[in-house]
Design a protein that fits this description.
Elements lengths: L1 E4 L6 H28 L9 H11 L3 H21 L5 E7 L7 E2 L1 H10 L5 H12 L7 E2 L13 H22 L8 E7 L9 H9 L6 E5 L6 H13 L6 E7 L12 H4 L9 E7 L10 E10 L4 H4 L2 E5 L5 E5 L3 H20 L2 H15 L18 E4 L4 H10 L4 H14 L6 H11 L8 E8 L3 E9 L49
Parallel strand pairs: 5-6, 5-7, 12-13
Antiparallel strand pairs: 1-6, 2-8, 2-9, 3-4, 7-8, 9-14, 10-11, 13-14
Length: about 525
């Protein structure tokens, strides 16, 4: 994680907050004394003799002591006010939709993979089978660099891809948040796992939008698909320190330099899943923004199982024997993800679940650990705590497993499955397409709670819980789903065969995958 502070980060607020906490601890006894002094003259004559005696003794206090106690009360109240957590609001969000030239049907995807000349017949047949079972639809997006003939994978085209996404979502977000100028942003966080150029992307954004010199910026890289929630958690912590300001969070992933052009099967899977996408989120700790904000951040829970070798090595960027770089997915990925999820919800559960569900879970733990009973652990019903679920659209297998484990309905899984179908796996930004889907469908009502769950290399499982502050009307202009929301959801079969003949290259050529593999 890289950190940049343009012009230096102010630290006086942190010092003041620490002093306030220490002061509050010192004045609590005086506060209690003040309360007793205030109530003493009003004590009823029916009080027990011991309390009446206490009343008489307190009544003998001098006016100076009473004045000190009152001052202490005011000081303690001030200390409590400045030390309590500041609410964090989500003002608005924006999701990127690439233009029509970037759309790629599954037949077009396979044809361009085949014509690039990098894959053997077995690898092409394998990628076709994976794509048929991936849950992706016919309108996902590739960067121009990967659907040109020949492919053009270089730093220049990688920058072009990232710039289009970043500027697209930030421009749209600022348009959707009237009254907020780039110079109003005090915290800037960007995450892209596999591309981290110099100058950083946070510097690029600050330069493009003319942000102020003391904006606190963090550029996150290498943190996988869960980096979006990590960025939100970091923004939340920074907004506890920097008062009355906005935080801009931009999440994306670069595809150009991270498409795998070799023949190692564990590294080929990512070619069939990852697509272009990105999101920008505007957060605020200004109380005046509560009226127009969509959500309030209630909890963030981060789980990191990097201390376990199996977890650490299940998603890795590496070179194959031929020197081709790609991301390898281990066969143990689903097991590792399940363990990370269990650890995460063990922490999250007590914060959000009703007491009845917590007691049921505790009962099974006691039976198993104390009485040595062979009782299956109780999985709490999180539908009692949340109204909407935004599960990272990492792939069909991940969604199927979480639907089964959390006992979710087809309705609950719809935002994640439609995001995978329409946009593919857009890495850390997929959660925001899912939330935007719920908004476009008119599902978000005031008071609803949303659970975002993300998984990433390392291995990490991160959660964010939001509470809707107002009803969000469907069909908002700028929502990435609005133009087609009326035809969704669509049925996505378990296996959807690809007919290569449906795509023809501009020169009239076609491509047919060999039956080998």
């Amino acid at each position: 994680m890289g950190r940049e502070v343009f012009g230096g980060a102010p630290t006086t607020t942190t010092t003041q907050a620490n002093k306030a906490v220490v002061m509050s601890r010192r004045v609590i006894p005086l506060l209690l004394l003040a309360v007793v002094v205030f109530l003493a003259p009003r004590l009823s004559s029916t009080l027990p003799a011991g309390l009446l005696l206490l009343k008489e003794k307190l009544g003998r206090l001098s006016p100076a002591a009473v004045a000190v106690a009152c001052w202490a009360t005011a000081a303690a109240a001030w200390a409590y006010a400045v030390s309590r957590p500041r609410p964090v609001y989500l003002v608005d969000l924006s999701g990127y939709v690439a233009g029509a030239p970037h759309e790629a049907s599954r037949a077009k995807t396979i044809a361009h993979f085949g014509r690039c000349g990098r894959f053997c017949d077995e690898s092409m047949a394998f990628q076709k089978r994976m794509l048929e079972r991936s849950g992706l639809g016919e309108r996902t997006h590739f960067p121009a660099s990967l659907i040109s003939v020949p492919v053009d994978m270089c730093l220049r085209t990688a920058r072009e891809e990232s710039h289009a996404v970043i500027f697209g979502v930030v421009d749209d977000l600022l348009r959707r948040a009237p009254g907020v100028a780039p110079r109003d942003v005090g915290v800037l966080i960007f995450n892209s796992s596999l591309l981290s150029p110099t100058p950083s992307f946070t510097s690029l954004i600050a330069n493009r939008y003319g942000m102020r010199h003391d904006v606190v910026s963090h550029n996150l890289s290498g943190m996988g698909c869960s980096a979006g929630i990590i960025a939100i958690d970091l923004a939340k912590r920074l907004l506890q320190v920097h008062r009355d300001t906005y935080a801009l969070v931009v999440s994306t992933e670069n595809i150009t330099l991270n498409a795998y052009m070799g023949n190692n099967r564990p590294m080929l899977v990512t070619n069939t899943l990852f697509r272009v996408g990105g999101a920008a989120i505007l957060l605020s700790n200004r109380r005046a923004d509560r009226r127009r904000a969509k959500y309030q951040l209630i909890h963030t829970v981060r789980t990191h199982r990097g201390a376990h070798d199996q977890s650490f090595g299940c998603v890795t960027q590496e070179e194959d024997d031929a020197g081709c770089v790609g991301v390898s997915l281990s066969k143990e990925l689903m097991v590792v993800a399940g363990e990370a999820l269990r650890t995460n919800i063990t922490t999250l559960g007590p914060l959000v679940l009703p007491m009845s569900e917590q007691l049921r879970f505790l009962a099974t733990v006691v039976l198993n650990r104390v009485f040595r009973a062979n009782v299956r652990a109780y999985l709490p019903d999180f539908k009692l705590a949340f109204d909407h679920f935004c599960i990272h659209a990492g792939g069909r297998g991940v969604l199927d497993e979480l639907e089964r484990s959390l006992k979710l309905s087809t309705w609950h899984m719809e935002p994640s499955r439609m995001t995978l179908c329409r946009f593919g796996n857009t890495s850390s930004s997929s959660l925001w397409y899912e939330l935007a889907y719920c908004e476009a469908k008119g599902r978000i009502r005031k008071g609803d709670r949303v659970w975002q769950i993300a998984f990433g290399s390392g291995f990490k499982c991160n959660s964010a819980v939001w509470k809707a502050l107002r009803t969000v009307d469907g069909g908002e202009e700028g929502n990435p789903w609005t133009p087609e929301i009326d035809v969704l959801p669509v049925h996505v079969p378990k296996v959807s065969p690809i007919d290569e003949t449906t795509y023809t290259f501009p020169d009239g050529a076609t491509y047919k995958v060999s039956s080998l593999g």
